[in-house]
Amino acid sequence: MTAPVIAIPSLHRTAPGLQTRVLLVCGILSSLLYAAMNVFIPMLWDGYNAASRVVSELSAIDAPTRSLWVPLGIVYGVLVTLFGFGVWTSARGNRALRVVGALLIAYGAFDIIPWPPMHLREVLAAGGATLTDTLHIVWSMIAVLLMILVIAFGAAAFGQWFRKYSIGTLMTLAIFGALTGVDSPGISANVPTPWIGVWERINIGVYMLWVVVLAIALLRARNRRSLIGGAQ
Asked: What are phi and psi of 215, to 5 degrees?
């Protein structure tokens, strides 16, 4: 007599457990935390204008907001790292999504270590730049590269809708990243940069939103029969 066949779903179609769901929620929390940091911390610096100053100035040497920004930035890095592990464990058979998880872990770990800080504009304009200012630029470039790679590989993780959304996000990053770059020499020269904070925060916002959308997509996927599609 032939034994009855019991259908067992493959691992990559198994719903994530509670632990994975908590890790995925960390992605949403990381974006909410960073958004809150950009709203409330500037209020503690009398004279800081979010439209004309970049985010890095909030953690600059001798900035009145540095003592608060740095520890919260570490918390943000921890949340991103945990989210990366959540993406990794959700990937299963999806190689592109597994790469996204690894990149997010690297990006989060990169943020846990406090960045080399820049000096205030007045110091830079007076010729007070040091090695830490150069390293801050290098750190920023690495962070941007990791963000781009996360979105690029993430574009292949789901269906056509997410691919189009990711491409749109990358295009937005390219446009406003270029605008930020055009205005950035004005920081070290301590000349007016009336829109640089706007350009940079648009870039930050679209990336943070992309992370939230990815987290929600993964959380919703656990309720579908096919958890993840994508290239094998």
From this structure: -60, -45
